[in-house]
Amino acid sequence: MNNLLTIADLGFNILRANLTRRRQPIFLSLFITNRCNLRCKYCFVVDPKVPQDILKMEYSKEEAIKIIDEFYSMG
Q1: Which residue, of 19, 45, 52, 69, has the greatest Cβ tally within 10 A?
Q2: What's the Cα-to-Cα distance from 9 to each of 4, 16, 31, 68, 75, rounded to whole Å?
């Protein structure tokens, strides 16, 4: 049921953005760290085309908060 509500909410946000012509984020996924030892098959971390320096990047607490605040202000 929770997944259905999430999908419905996403659909509503897409529809509202199209109707109002307002540019705003519809969905945000923020990876705070790329260091992971699980190596899920669906994750980009296992893609050999992704440079190693990208995989080792991490946001500081301040950087993550700044990014979140910027997207929050966009709606």
Answers
A1: 45
A2: 9, 10, 22, 19, 14
